[in-house]
Amino acid sequence: MTSAYQDLAARQRRLHHLGHLQAIAQWDQAANMPAKGNEARSLALAEMDGLLHQLATDSALPGLLDSAAAEPLDDTQHANLREIRRVWRAANALPQALVEAKSLANNRCEHAWRTQRPANDWAGFAPNLREVLRIARQEADCLSQSAGLSRYDALLDLYEPGMRSSGVERAFAPLRQWLPGLIRDVIARQATENVIEPVGPFPTAAQKALGLDAMQLMGFDFAAGRLDESTHPFCGGVPEDVRMTTRYREDDFLPALMGVIHETGHGRYEQGLPRELLGQPIARARSMGIHESQSLSFEMQLGSHPAFAGLLAPLLVKHFGAQSAFEPGNLHRLLTRVKPGFIRVDADEVTYPAHILLRFDIERALIEGEAEVDDIPALWDGKMAELLDLDTRGNFKDGPMQDVHWPAGLFGYFPCYTLGAMYAAQWFAAMRTQQPDLDARIADGELGGVFSWLATHVWRVASRYETPELVQRASGEPLNPAHFEMHLRQRYL
Amino acid sequence: MTSAYQDLAARQRRLHHLGHLQAIAQWDQAANMPAKGNEARSLALAEMDGLLHQLATDSALPGLLDSAAAEPLDDTQHANLREIRRVWRAANALPQALVEAKSLANNRCEHAWRTQRPANDWAGFAPNLREVLRIARQEADCLSQSAGLSRYDALLDLYEPGMRSSGVERAFAPLRQWLPGLIRDVIARQATENVIEPVGPFPTAAQKALGLDAMQLMGFDFAAGRLDESTHPFCGGVPEDVRMTTRYREDDFLPALMGVIHETGHGRYEQGLPRELLGQPIARARSMGIHESQSLSFEMQLGSHPAFAGLLAPLLVKHFGAQSAFEPGNLHRLLTRVKPGFIRVDADEVTYPAHILLRFDIERALIEGEAEVDDIPALWDGKMAELLDLDTRGNFKDGPMQDVHWPAGLFGYFPCYTLGAMYAAQWFAAMRTQQPDLDARIADGELGGVFSWLATHVWRVASRYETPELVQRASGEPLNPAHFEMHLRQRYL
Questions:
Q1: Average pLDDT for A444-455
Q2: Which helix (H) or strand (E) covers residue A237, if one does?
Q3: Which residue of B has its CA nearest to A32?
Q4: Which of A57, A470, B235, B301 is a plausible cystine mate for B266, CB 3.0–4.6 Å?
Q5: Is A244 helix (H, G, I), strand (E, B) or coil?
Q6: What band does A479 get if pLDDT is binned at 50, 70 and 90?
Q7: Cβ of A44 and B20 within 8 Å?
Q8: A45 to chain B: which residues are within 8 Å by CB?
Q9: Gyration radius from chain A CA atoms
């Protein structure tokens, strides 16, 4: 006799197996697929989306969820049931017609955006984005009624379960205060520094080999994943087979290298999830913010650590030959340059949060109905001037058209990037308390202490605890944005 | 109001979309997947196999098939319905329990075979193969009852629809007569020839570039497919996105090069299927034999054509530098060497059919219950001695353990290879009648006449006609094995 819990768990395994094929086909679409394959691939992925949604909202599920809650379950099963219910509630809140309309509108907007952005065509883009926003508001309505949350909070909950905009605002309020001053101070300080630029070209083959060496240094398991190329770098695949991508430009090796180190953080999180539970929601990465805390632990906390340049330098010499720019002190200065710019994904660690504050404010107003698409450019220009002292008027392509998130219908995602930076700073503060010689060990190239701390407190925990409990258990306190400020002041001033 | 035919067509499109994800994941498993990904991938593929089988045997189908047959249909729809019914009958003949038992037994046998073969471990292999054969006989029983065919014919029909072992025997009987003498005569003739061996090594990167050039020469559409590497070369993916693979050894470039040309024949068939009908069974490749007739048209009819060496030679010089072995006359002699050997996949065009005669006789006896697994080695040794004058006693790994087909449960497949060689010879005989200057054109590097003939008579026809009608319409006569004999005599004597 199968218990309701066992039935639910079997259904989750089925979703995991079918989702595996979906994930590999999506990776392949980005990394391998020739142009003429796209139409058939899109139809195949849409078919699977429909099938997965159908399985995720099967009419037997409410009864099974209720029955399982009355069964004798152990702690793991309890936590898993909580996650199964959470995922089911979100899927079930949306009528099938809305799911389909959303998929259509988002695909249309994102597809057109790919040519509209380089053409700076805001007038062409705005009507599509209006439709995407209209549907996102409907989605937010449905989720909000089902979960008893505000509209924006209901979307935020999809990416950062349990987080509310009030919590984000609590974390971001001090940031709003100290960030502009810190940026000014850091720029003033760095103005006196002497930095030698590396001299290229840096052949793609050498950069690839360097990236693999860096992944090795960061402990990536190549028997359970690989590195390939795509236009937009990402970490995809499945926990059992992680597919990272990057892109190369021969005049500069740092974007690809630091991108690879960033994605390796995502990749090791996935590789480190509890294998014995894979297929169940309890074994999934906790949230987008926690995920980003791993990539930023790798890229920023470790990758821009003053001692890390000493570990990277010999690899650069090995793959590109010696040059004075690779001297560790100079390399560290290169890795920590701060310069306000238009583009979020190119931003340094210090100015990055400004890009997020701006987007968080605008997207929350859009979803809550306090702003419309036509208001975006003026809001954008005002905040860019205020936060980064940059003039973006009329420059839509490097302004509100620069990210794929809104055209793709992803509202509520942006805050996770800076929450991730805050979590990462908090992890390293906790690590330093527990391992006082941490920085000396990093200088010696002994990164095992960092990795085992992350594995113990984040990777193997997966979704066993809700985020506040995960954070409390890992660091001994709730989310505390002061660690991020201290980290930046210490590293940059 | 949806007609029964429209309902069936929509179900076929759904199967096509889900099968797309399955095909890409299978290609990825062979071409990219790291070792630790295999368990999760196998589970994911098995889940999809189950789902596809479930959709293919849905209880609504018999009623829909009957209703559709009574609806007013055009010729295309009639032909498509015939194919839908054929595929449904084969899927429906097998009980779910047998499908699962077969999958388990075949996977177990094939997996163990991968280590047993190099160890020459017939004693370890035989019990697994016995189980695979037991289940293949059950499968043949089920199919045979459903289709009113003998057991072996019921399996053969899966790969070569409409072909019966009596038809195979009719085509193979003359071959049995003339092949041993022809092999002797060719060897005697070639013994007097002077052949210069190419001098390696041939770097993998240069071989890859050469392969891409050869695919270009053969008209492969790189916007709808790609070439990668795998341990066992194959042509996979989907018609909209063909995934070819090859493997490289640096001491010899010919296996990879001719392998690529062979797979390009399969690839262009897939790329040339009628796009407007893709997703429906009428738009699928006709059979394994017709498929092989395309790869052999490319590899043997064209690739070993005396004039083709003149097209290849400049490519070899371009990628490896000049050497005397690349002189066209010598290159042609290299490409047409005949030498009896143990291994089917390494065999030349002349001795290859001997490997098929042997396997056809043995597997037919196995399936019809006239031989058992323990009889295989003696049967093999006897036939290898008789057909190729080779002693294979005790050499299981280069004998009955060399192919993946039987361990994987594929009985009834082998004859398709030689039927394909016969069809290919028949296509070129017909082409020469219609295009008397064909050979001169090939010498001029004008291959378009060959490709457009194949596109018109085979690729775009797909499964519109049953095989005998396809063959008759294409060549003006039924399958006529005399063309294959004439082709070999003309090329090799």
A1: 97
A2: strand A235-238
A3: B226
A4: B235
A5: strand
A6: very high
A7: yes
A8: 21
A9: 23
